[in-house]
Specification:
Blueprint (H helix, E strand, L loop, with lengths): L2 E7 H5 L4 E4 L11 H12 L7 E10 L8 E7 L1 H20 L3 H6 L5 E4 L3 E4 L1 E2 L2 H12 L9 H12 L3 H14 E8 L6 H9 L6 H15 L4 H14 L5 H11 L14 H11 L3 H19 L8 H16 L6 H10 L3 H21 L6 H11 L7 H11 L4 H8 L8 H14 L14 E5 L19 H8 L5 E5 H7 L4 H11 L4 H4 L9 H18 L3
Helix pairs in contact: 3-6, 3-7, 9-10, 9-12, 10-13, 11-15, 13-15, 14-16, 15-17, 16-18, 16-19, 19-25
Length: about 550
Amino acid sequence: MKIDVDEQTVEQFLKGGSTLLVVPDYQRPYSWENGQLEDFWNDLDTLDSDDIHFIGSIVLISESHIPGNFNKLEVVDGQQRLTTISILMKAIQDKYTELGEDDDAKSMDGYFYSEVHRRGKLVKLQPGKSDREIFDNLIGGNIDRITGTCIGDAYVFFKKKLESLEQLHNIFDKIVYRLSFVTIVTDSDKSAYRLFETLNDRGLDLSAVDLVKNNLLRQASEKGLNLDEIKNLWEGIIDNLEDIDKVRYFRQYLLSSKIVETRGKVTKEGLYDKFSEILKKIDNIPKFIDDVKKQSLLYNKIENSSIDDFDRSKDEEINIHLRNIEAIKATTSYTLLLRAFVELKRPEDILKLIELLETFAIRRNIVGTSTSDLDLIYNKLALDSFSEGTDWYEFIKEYLGKNMPTDLEFESKFKVVQLQQNDQTKYILDKLESEFGAGNKGKRVGNSFSVHIEHIAPQTMKDPSLWDGFAELDSDEQRECITSIGNLTLLEKKPNIKASNNSFEVKKEFYAESSTEMLMTNELSKYEKWGVEEIKERGERLAKMAVKIWKF
């Protein structure tokens, strides 16, 4: 794929040549209103004669050029700005004519027409189907035929702004020599993500999802489908995904969908290619996009832990576990959950599945297993677990078990792993607290702001000699010990601030008085002293409990 990026003025881009700028029919009609036109005019009118005004990017796809024929460029992005510039220039040309400046008026034809020897000339900018005849009438001088249209209204707006000959010369020079934009021309829409990477490297806010939409509308237009219906479905998808990573959703949708059954990885970079390939094969595009929309609403509920499909009690229990999934950064599992919420009708089954996913994720996270295979794992489970005749639970449990650390690996790593101050660590401590509470459900604080992670031996240790064994450790060893599970517990916000960097004797009082509901923390008040050996002993004990909690 070839990408040409060039900064150009209107003079360089529009004047003369054999190029036609074709706006696809699926693009929205010209829609600039007075506010936008006023802003554009003010930017131009106040521009100093020696300044350059940058107006963004024009993205174009080049068709194969046949020598001796017109060179067509498809306008992917920038048609509203190009149309506005052309309308203003036409208003200037007509004003020149009214003032008797026929030579100046005639010299502007090169900005409106492209010409090929023996093939005549055509209007250079060719808007989409709904605007093309109106724009042709504008350029042809049939102003009475454009009244009441957006293009006609813009023409009238600019015409009223133009007065003296001196002003005409001044505005014209600013348009053709002082307006600048980046033109990005690619020879194909295949592998188009590379194009958008190039644009984003230059600070232009575009994504693969924009290209997916363009490709969808292009193919729908070519197949004669109702574009309004497709656009409405697409807008519903985008509304459902507000504040959600849209690229991630589309990737996980494709990996989970029973309609398209995509196997293998769908990377961020490969999303556009894969989606385009699927659209070409789909017989019923509206039905497919409607499914994408329905699943986007489900994805929103999963992402925001707001499932409301069952009774209030079961919904809340499911949502608590979904918050756990978010806390332990296991959102790759949404691929499987998207499919499971469609296939499984009982809340008890959903809960059984999410508990499996929690165990799988936390074991791999603690051991530090590579995440590179997760998309493939969840893709296979989404597509194969719910086939007719398959015991979905046993199938998933067996497959996850093959890709998960053993009890010994998990226990060995759990007692020494360095834990950060984040929601995953709160989740782990909350689960351990439930075990101290003889099987109660814990405080459920996986991603809560109501509790803090307490380092019993403090992170900012002013005097290591006050903590048994720490003076003999180097700084790295001290940090490893302080951030291990044996030295961590939960405290409510206020007691945590009070405990701070005090000695263990002082902290014990806070643990006893302030944590009567947190048995794991309350237990610490029974220790006579606190140091390296106590941390190791407690870490080993908590690691054995962890194997029981996250058992498989």
